Amino acid sequence: MRPCLVVSTDALNQSEFGTVIICPITTTERPRFKWRIAVTPGDLRLTDTGWQPQPHWVETDQIATVDTAHRALRHLATVVDEEKLQMVDDSLRMMLHL
């Protein structure tokens, strides 16, 4: 399972619904996909510390909702770099036309 970036609010993440909204993270660069945000492991807080020290891209075009019981949740990440977080937010706004 690929690593994922949690993009839902803390209110949803901690709610009784048992779901989180995520964007997958990939090591495959697609230069024409301008809405994919480049990140390094240093930009993220990771639950899986086995990441390779290479560039990764947040796939804001692949938004998904997953059950918190799902095995993918072992590979979650949250953005700790404010500039990268703003770039992810801007990309999601563009993708969702908000």
Number of helices: 2
Helix content: 10-25%
Measured on Cα atoms, how large is the radius of gyration?
A: 13 Å
List the helices and strands in order: EHEEEEEEH
What is the CATH architecture term?
A: Roll
How many DSSP-defined strands?
7
- Sheet with the most strands, sense and barrel status: 7 strands, mixed
Content-based structural category: alpha+beta
How far is it from the N-terminal to the C-terminal residue, by CA?
29 Å
pLDDT < 50 runs, ≥5 residues: none
Instruction: Bin the strand percentage.
Output: 25-35%
Shape: globular
Q: What is the highest CATH level, the class?
A: Mainly Beta
How many domains? The number is 1
Question: How does this structure look, described?
Answer:
- With 98 residues, the chain is an alpha+beta fold.
- The chain has one domain (4-96): SH3 type barrels (Roll).
- The protein contains 2 helices and 7 strands, in the order βαββββββα.
- Strands 1, 2, 3, 4, 5, 6 and 7 form a 7-stranded mixed beta sheet that branches.
Brief descriptors of the model:
98 residues, alpha+beta, seven-stranded mixed β-sheet, 7 strands, globular
Summarize the structure.
The protein is an alpha+beta fold. The chain is 19% helix and 31% strand.
